Amino acid sequence: MKNKEELKEVKTKLTQYIDKELGLKFNSKTNIFKSNQGVNFCGYKINEYRMKLRTKGKKRIKKVIKTMKSKIKKGEMTSIDAKKHLCGFFGYMKYADKYNFVNCYFENEEKELG
User: What are the strands of the beta sheet with 39-41, ordered from one edge?
Assistant: First the structure.
């Protein structure tokens, strides 16, 4: 697209299409942004080149791991149970560009969890 006016026309046509053909509506947050800004969707930040984990999601994962480590030390959870729980996070992260996050954070945590 060459300019924002063209994009507004496309958005209008899309709005009409999804309303008429699919019975759906865009929410009030639907706007036009530069593609390099990316969009937040289902816990990911998606732009034209990659899909990353949102910062909020990474913080949540770190918090859960910290809690699990504490429970393991107190004997409230086994390392096997913790690993099972981590599998859910790895499923969530499967499609994201997460190389640095996994290498910098999870490898150290896995060593500590046993």
Answer: 39-41, 44-46, 51-53
Q: For residue 68, what are the CA distances in angstroms to 45, 50, 74, 83, 94?
A: 26, 30, 10, 10, 21
Q: What are phi and psi of 106, to 5 degrees?
A: -70, -35
Taking only the tens place, the pLDDT of each residue in 55-111 is 888 888 889 989 999 999 999 999 899 888 888 888 888 778 766 666 666 665 555
Q: How confident is the model at residue 24 (pLDDT cuts 50, 70, 90)?
A: very high
Separation between Cα atoms, residue 107 and residue 113, nearest integer Å: 10
Domain that holds residue 21: 4-32
* Domain contains 38: no
Same domain, 61 and 108: yes
- Residue 46: inside a domain: no
